[in-house]
Design brief:
Layout lengths: L2 H13 L4 E6 L3 H13 L5 E5 L15 E2 L10 H20 L3 E2 L3 E5 L5 H13 L6 E3 L1 H7 L7 E5 L3 E3 L1 H14 L3 E4 L3 E6 L5 E5 L2 E10 L5 H7 L7 E12 L9 E4 L11 E4 L5 E4 L3 E2 L13 H8 L2 H22 L1 H9 L10 E13 L10 E4 L3 E6 L4 H19 L4
Parallel strand pairs: 1-2, 1-12, 2-9, 5-14, 12-20
Antiparallel strand pairs: 3-8, 4-8, 5-7, 6-7, 10-11, 11-12, 13-16, 13-17, 13-18, 14-15, 15-16, 19-20
Helix pairs in contact: 2-6, 2-11, 3-11, 9-10
Length: 418
């Protein structure tokens, strides 16, 4: 056998000793839930999770309001509507089975002006179509019984809405996966990907090379970049939006549960609102401000390469042209506590600036199309060897266990994993 041919055979033989059947890139709640679903469906699967941070759930999964959404907002028949309802049920069952504290505190959505009444009615009809348990249309008197300090001319009451610490959910998921033999590698950022000679994938990470037959991309804020490294050319691009929070002083005792405005139908964000956390603290926010880094949690965070990549995308400029008024208002509200408080006073008039203290922030991975549209639904793409979760915004944490089952079903159909 000629030397060059022998070397190719030797290299192929070496690569045939792949470590894993499947590697999931991203140790957030969607990646962990996907691993759980795959493990349940294929108990003998050699499975790894690659997480670039030193812990699971470090970004979107733990920088959020912690709401278990009931499914009111989403277009009937959409992935969000179907997976949110199923996911909320599965998540509550998981919390009860594993001792994770959650609080079914309920939520009111307030119409504070006559112009908002048609939108409130449309939300009610969506919620009913989506099977939201116990959803009611209520008036000012009933609202005062539920939230004595809130004011509105009409409202929706969702008693099934709850809150949880999604960071804790991630930690419990990770412990269960490790007990089941799943390997979770932290500090393992995927920098390159290439095809292996045996037909699998070689993932070059900061913690060494990982070999797998198949991969699932759950990289969240970096999902589109990873997809490109893996040979896909997604049309959408992730644009990061920072959401900033305040804490309400506990002694004011103005909020019992969750108080939301009627959202702007042209903008896929829910507006600043009040959320009672499972700890008992009440947070106010978030807004939605364009960030200059994919992990831009502070106003001064700028990642030059990510910023250049964003502004080189034609869809970014079309988005900016479409939403510049809304974006300018969000930016002003970010800089002005007084403007932030005015937004909150539409819901709870007694709130004052002195009642708020700055808290943390989160970054939402918002997919934008080449035409400048802000994608509203979940977006999943497939290739021969990979499944890419390209867009998983809220309510992805609520829906995570259902999303995981959906991905496991796609993998079962596309690949030989038995």
């Amino acid at each position: 056998m000629p030397g060059s041919q022998r070397r190719r055979v030797d290299e192929a033989a070496e690569e045939m000793g792949t470590e894993f059947d499947l590697a999931i890139v991203g140790g957030g709640i969607v990646g962990l839930a996907t691993a759980l679903a795959l493990r349940d469906r294929f108990p003998r699967l050699r499975l790894a999770i690659l997480e670039k941070e030193g812990r699971v759930g470090a970004h979107q999964s733990s920088h959020n309001s912690g709401v278990i959404h009931a499914g009111i907002y989403y277009r009937p028949g959409s992935h969000k509507a179907r997976l949110c309802a199923e996911g909320a049920r599965l998540l509550v069952e998981f919390c009860e089975a594993h001792g994770v504290r959650y609080d079914r505190c309920g939520k009111v959505i307030l119409a504070t002006s006559p112009e908002e009444l048609p939108r409130l009615q449309a939300l009610f009809e969506r919620g009913v179509a989506n099977g939201v348990p116990g959803l009611e249309q209520i008036g000012p008197e009933r609202l005062r019984e539920i939230e004595p300090h809130a004011r509105a001319i009409a409202a929706l009451w969702s008693p099934a809405t709850a809150t949880v610490d999604f960071g804790e959910v991630c930690r419990v998921l990770a412990r269960r996966l490790v007990e089941q033999g799943v390997e979770i590698r932290t500090g393992a950022r995927v920098e390159r990907c290439r095809a292996g000679a045996w037909g699998g994938m070689l993932l070059e990470t900061t913690a060494g090379e990982v070999r797998a037959r198949y991969a699932v991309n759950c990289a969240g804020l970096h999902a589109d970049l990873l997809a490109r490294r893996m040979g896909l050319r997604p049309a959408v691009r992730i644009v990061p939006f920072r959401g900033e929070y305040y804490l309400l002083r506990a002694e004011r005792n103005l909020v019992r549960g969750l108080i939301y405005p009627v959202p702007d139908p042209a903008f896929p964000f829910l507006g600043v609102h009040f959320t009672r956390r499972v700890t008992g603290e009440v947070e106010a926010g978030p807004n939605a401000v364009l960030a200059f880094a994919r992990e831009g949690y502070r106003r001064g965070d700028v990642h030059p390469a990510e910023l250049l990549d964003m502004i080189a995308f034609p869809g970014f400029w079309r988005m900016a042209a479409r939403y510049w008024r809304t974006g300018s208002a969000e930016f002003y509200r970010s800089l002005s506590r007084r403007a932030f408080v005015r937004s909150l006073q539409r819901l709870v008039p007694e709130v004052r600036a002195r009642d708020l203290q700055p808290d943390g922030s989160g970054v939402r991975a918002q997919a934008v199309s080449p035409s400048g549209e802000l994608l509203d639904d979940f977006e999943i793409a497939q290739t021969d060897r990979a499944i890419h979760v390209l867009h998983s915004p809220s309510p992805a944490a609520t829906a995570s266990l259902a999303i995981g089952r959906h991905i496991a079903s796609l993998a079962d159909t596309a690949w030989d994993l038995a």
